[in-house]
What we know:
The chain is mainly β. Helices cover 7% and strands 38% of the residues. The protein has three domains: 9-113, Structural Genomics Hypothetical 15.5 Kd Protein In mrcA-pckA Intergenic Region, Chain A (Roll); 121-173, CATH 2.40.50.740; 180-227. It has a five-stranded antiparallel beta sheet with strand order 5-4-7-8-9, with no helix packed on it. A hairpin with a 4-residue loop joins strand 13 and strand 14 (168-173). It is globular. The termini are far apart.
Amino acid sequence: MANKGETKCLKINNASAITDVKKTKRFVYRPKPGKHTGKTTISIGFVLKNLLNLADNTREVKYIINNRELVVDKRQVKDHRLPVGMFDIIEIPKLNKAYKVYYGFNGAYYLKEVEKSDAKFKICKIISKKITSKNNIQLVTNDGRVLITTNLAYKPKATIKLDLEENVIKEYYPLEVGREVFVIGGKHIGSVAKIEEIKLSTMTRPMLIKLKQDGVDFETIEKNIIVIN
């Protein structure tokens, strides 16, 4: 039997909770493999139809994209199944609009409109770090970027503020007490809180972060947060 090719749609029952789509609809666009993991990504076509409400069907989605009316992280969108995830910057030049992707308190993605001056910067979490053969530092971020630098101060689990136009690091936010974080997983997803204490990992448990939000303390594991300030 011949290979039928990849599946371009995703059943609602198998779609992640981040889409927040009512089950009256049967399918959503299946995002292509890319910079985000399958469980943390939505397609740009879904954004146009369900979050921005700029299109009613696939034909209209493709018309917008084919007319080069959409930009993600300063790159022209060419496919309606392009994967989009946390902190990605979506721009619509003809409307002079820019949006940043966030998690809501229900765990579903939503878009927050940002100023044009803020649309050139993106928050990226450092996932890994290693020294290359030329003694440079290679950083891999949560959105699949590979950055080369000579600064030894950058550490995994910390965050950088990246200039998308120049592809250079503008600011560095280490994981330390007093920093502000955005919660991307667990019971408190979508919350903004401050680090009160960091409990190092052991042989039996991962690193725990004690946070405070509006006078309320709670704990979560390190992978559930991103430092934002």
